[in-house]
Amino acid sequence: MPRKDKENYYLDIAETVLERATCLRRVYGAIIVKNDEIISTGYNGAPRGRANCVDMGYCSREAMRVPRGERYELCRSVHAEANAIISASRRDMVGGTIYLVGRDARTGELLKDATSCAMCRRQVINAGLARVVIRRSESEYEVVDVQDWVREDDFLPLELRYAFAGEPVPEEALKESNAKGSEQT
Q1: Gap between the Cα atoms of 146 and 22, Å rounded
Q2: Residues 158, 164, 166: CA angle, nearest 5 degrees
Q3: How buried is residue 12: exposed, middle or buried, by Cβ count under 10 Å (0-12/13-18/19+)?
Q4: What are the pLDDT digits (tens) for 74-83?
Q5: Smallest Cα–Cα separation from 81: which of 110, 50, 122?
Q6: CB-count burial class (<10 Å; 0-12, 13-18, 19+) for 70
Q7: Which of 56, 86, 110, 141 has its CA 20 to 30 A from that of 172?
Q8: Are the C-beta atoms of 120 and 66 separated by less than 8 Å?
Q9: How far apart are CA 160 and CA 143, in angstroms?
Q10: Percent of the chain with pLDDT over 70
């Protein structure tokens, strides 16, 4: 039997963690790893002591007809990334990697478009994590450099995005930004 690469090894563990998730729409599992040690795990579910959607038998966001990807503050669940971050010390996470796997709660199908929401991205950044590894298929994955999320902050002007990252603005990014700006006016 061929030896599994480490990225898929850790993604398999994150996938096992998602089996504890309690969302009726999508289930996610996350683990934080640094220096080949698992620091913490997390899955999406209601805060401790509160009823989970699987226990209530309905999704409050679906009941309110909230479209997927919107109004996360109305969700009962704490996201997998947030739960993993909450369960670890920042000093243990800095420079580490968070592994993320998502599946459709109804069909069990792997979510090939899984990613962290804007709120979780901010938490990943503040936790000091360096990379996010997201499963795309049973053996393929995407590696995200967290500094890309810092630079891609769409609430900031382009120059500030790079200034905060301590980098000069690439010439082609300026051209792209200027082109988009002229299209919108």
Answers
A1: 27
A2: 105
A3: middle
A4: 888 999 999 9
A5: 122
A6: exposed
A7: 141
A8: no
A9: 24
A10: 85
Strand, helix or coil for residue 29: strand
Contact 108, 94 (CB under 8 A): no
Read off the pLDDT of residues 10-64 as tens digits, 9 standing for 90 and up: 999 999 999 999 999 999 999 999 999 999 999 999 999 999 999 999 988 888 9
DSSP letter assigned to residue 74: G
3-state SS of 51-72 is CCHHHHCCCHHHHCCCCCCCCH
Closest CA to 72 of 84, 85, 82, 87: 82
How many whole angstroms separate alpha carbon 115 and alpha carbon 80?
Answer: 11
Rounded to an integer, what distance in angstroms lies between the CA atom of residue 119 and that of residue 68? 15
141-145 vs 26-34, strand pairing mode: unpaired
Q: What element of type H or E holds 93?
A: helix 90-93
For 124-162, the pLDDT digits (tens) are 999 999 999 999 999 999 999 999 999 876 666 666 666
- The amino acid at residue 56 is M
Closest CA relative to residue 7, chosen from 95, 100, 83: 100
Q: Give the C-alpha separation, 134 to 55, whole Å.
A: 28
| Encoded tokens for 15 | 């996938």
